Amino acid sequence: MTVDTEQMRNWIGQTAYGSDGDKIGKISDIYLDEETGKPEWLAVSTGMFGSRLSFVPVSGASAQGDDVRLQFSKEQVKGAPNAEPDGALSQSEEAQLYAHYGMGYSESRSDSGLPEGGTGYTGTERTETREHSTGGHDNAMTRSEEELRVGKVTEQAGRVRLRKWVETDRVTETVPVTKETVSVEREPITGGNIGDAMSGPEITESEFEVTVNEERAVAETEVVPKERIRLDKERVTEQQQISADLRKEHVEVDDDSGITRR
């Protein structure tokens, strides 16, 4: 389906998708063929926070609802040669872009406003002019400058682990123990014990045994829980500075007529 210039102006601000269905970025400008006035290039904001401008041929692009589908993949668009977003594409910039997208380049005019395949360039150098969102050729120049857009990304800073291992300590304690001992006591025969002494046979062999006991210290272990240990996370906010080099365009009037009001 052919899209005319007026319809294509509505593409400014819409999201561009590659032929592989991947989102590429926002369409920020449309560049026109200076000779035919027809759209030839789409300027698409790519990269983090839209910090890079990539140029894509209008050829094969089509509207799909509120989006625009290109005939080139996201990888091919992001890998396109860099061109300054200064409102015009020079001959060398345009030739490099067409070579990147595998399209023939010459200065011959075609009905679509796109260069026909050819062998080279003849004549004066031509440029591609920018189509502003407010209209086409209006004798005006857009002055742009870069603004710093700061964002945040979350990335892994490290890992914290709880690890448990076993150590063996030798513990010594003193325990009082008791033991029995045997002593020999001799007592003379008296009137008080003569009866016990004479109660047995007069002469015989005999023996008497006494059991001796003692305490011995013993040890055993018991597992006793002492404490619970866990890892807790908390968010700490600190200030971090980030810097970037921002470019801005300046416009000056070179008037050799002396009649321009400023």
Q: What percentage of residues falls in helices of 4 or more residues?
A: under 10%
* The CATH top-level class label of the domain at 5-131: Alpha Beta
The ordered H/E elements are HEEEEEEHEHEH
Q: CATH homologous superfamily of the domain at 5-131?
A: Photosynthetic Reaction Center, subunit H, domain 2
Identify the overall geometry. rod-shaped
Name the quaternary structure: single chain
What is the CATH third-level topology name of the domain at 5-131?
Answer: Photosynthetic Reaction Center, Chain H, domain 2
The total strand number stands at: 8
- State the distance separating the first and last CA atoms: 45 Å
CATH architectural category of the domain at 5-131: Alpha-Beta Complex
Which class of secondary structure composition applies to the elements?
mainly beta
Report the total helices.
4
Tell me about the largest β-sheet: 8 strands, mixed
Low-confidence stretches at least 5 residues in length (pLDDT < 50)? 108-129, 131-137
Our estimate of the beta-strand percent is 15-25%
Radius of gyration: 50 Å
Mean pLDDT comes to 80
Q: Tags for this entry?
A:
single chain, 262 residues, mainly beta, eight-stranded mixed beta sheet, 8 strands
